[in-house]
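Problem 12. The chain below contains 140 residues. Write out its predicted structure in token notation.
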Amino acid sequence: MAIHRGLHQVAAADLEFRTLRSRGPGGQNVNKVESAVQLRFDLESSRALAADIKTRLRRLAGHRLTAEGIIVITSDLHRTQAANRREVLERLEALIERARTVPKRRIATQPSAGSRERRLERKRHQQRTKSLRRAPPGED
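Solution.
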């Protein structure tokens, strides 16, 4: 089996493909042809990815991650099984690529003196605008 270009370090044994019947309208073949593809990637037992990448991948996978640590990706966008197979491999590749990039650490900063002053000035202006909308005292 040929592994997708970006998944060269993932072992083929970690990937499991299943075919399913596609949902929705499909004409004459809708109840006969299994064109949808489900990819199951065993994240927990995979040795191809480093621990930090696995941690980020767990967070990024979200609802696609099962309790057993398997990432499940399904595609039924295309009419052919081959196209859906390519689609799930591309999605897994994109997910792993996102997990590879280490997020930048946010450095807490203080608002500048000018920005604080502009904010207070906008508040004073809004306060004046609203006070002009009120009825003068004594009028009902």
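Discussion. The longest helix spans residues 113-133. Students who got a different answer should revisit the alignment rule from Section 12.3.
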